[in-house]
Q: What sequence folds into this?
């Protein structure tokens, strides 16, 4: 079970919380006794998008539908789109 800190404690003990997260623990933050957030290690993985979606569905974080795959399919592939986007953004 994750440790729980109030928002007040979390502000005062952020460095301590980050040490615990770097050690692999998950920390919950509560507001007036109600959990509102989790701080957890970033999961470094080589999972495919489909594997991550299956995992999220298994954990109840999302619901898969018959249209899920078509909604996540790229509309069109254009080489250099990211470069053009970044150039337009900086202009």
A:
């Amino acid at each position: 079970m994750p440790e729980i800190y109030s928002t007040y404690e979390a502000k005062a003990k952020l460095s301590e919380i980050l040490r615990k997260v770097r050690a692999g623990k998950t920390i919950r933050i509560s507001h007036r006794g109600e959990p509102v957030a989790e701080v957890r290690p970033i999961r470094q993985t080589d999972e495919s998008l489909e594997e991550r979606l299956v995992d999220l569905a298994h954990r109840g974080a999302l619901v898969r539908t018959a249209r899920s795959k078509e909604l996540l399919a790229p509309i069109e592939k254009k080489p250099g789109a990211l470069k053009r986007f970044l150039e337009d953004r900086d202009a």
Notes: The longest helix spans residues 49-58.
